[in-house]
């Protein structure tokens, strides 16, 4: 078969085209100089990309403050812990994976601070039913966190980190409370 590669294009819609597969509508460039592109394809591979979204907060640039994805990459690629005591904070299932991996590698993880309530993930239960391996993976991470005594704080967020050359104290919401130095 033939592959059509369209770098630097923004696909704005994909329509079913019956037996012919799909019709893709895309643009290249930025308004008002956009160039439209339309093509038909039997199969479509979407490479949407992914990146960790860091929301800035006071102290987020201090030494020792690392994104969950960055901490996981440090551990997987270099077998380096981002610290001896690591509080894992943010939102989403990656937090459990990162906290479990850090604890299993020897870091003390006092808490996982999850912005959402895990009940918010209930609508995704059918997806877990279709992919039981993910459910097992989550149970393994949960077991690791239980064995290592990691506290799970849901509906909380880190709102500030303080320190000079390293993290010395951080605050969480709600309410604004001082937590033990990580």
State the distance separating the first and last CA atoms.
Answer: 55 Å
Low-pLDDT residue intervals, each spanning 5 or more residues: none
> Can you give the mean pLDDT?
84
Instruction: Kindly identify the CATH topology of the largest domain.
Output: FAD/NAD(P)-binding domain
Give the oligomer, counting copies of the same chain as homo and different chains as hetero.
single chain
Sheet bearing the most strands, described?
Answer: 3 strands, antiparallel
* Shape descriptor: extended
CATH class of the largest domain: Alpha Beta
SSE order, one letter for each helix or strand:
EEEHEHEHHEEEE
What is the CA-based Rg, rounded? Answer: 21 Å
Q: Please report which band the strand proportion falls in: under 5%, 5-15%, 15-25%, 25-35%, 35-45% or over 45%.
A: 25-35%
Number of strands: 9
Tally of helical segments: 4
Class computed from helices, strands and strand pairing: alpha/beta
Strand order of the largest sheet: 1-2-3
Q: CATH superfamily membership of the largest domain, which one?
A: FAD/NAD(P)-binding domain
Architecture (CATH level 2) name of the largest domain: 3-Layer(bba) Sandwich
**Fraction of residues in helix:** 10-25%
Count of discrete structural domains: 2
Could you describe the 3D structure shown?
There is one protein chain. This protein is an alpha/beta fold. It has two domains: 1-49; 68-179, 3-Layer(bba) Sandwich (FAD/NAD(P)-binding domain), CATH 3.50.50. It is built from four helices and nine strands, in the order βββαβαβααββββ. The protein has helices at 68-78, 94-104, 125-130, 132-147, and strands at 9-16, 22-28, 35-41, 88-90, 111-114, 151-154, 157-162, 169-173, 177-179. A three-stranded antiparallel beta sheet has the order 1-2-3, with no helix packed on it. The chain has a three-stranded parallel beta sheet with strand order 4-5-6, covered by helices on one side. β1 and β2 (22-28) form a beta hairpin. α2 (94-104) crosses α4. The longest helix has 16 residues, at 132-147. It is extended and about 55 Å long. The mean pLDDT is 84.
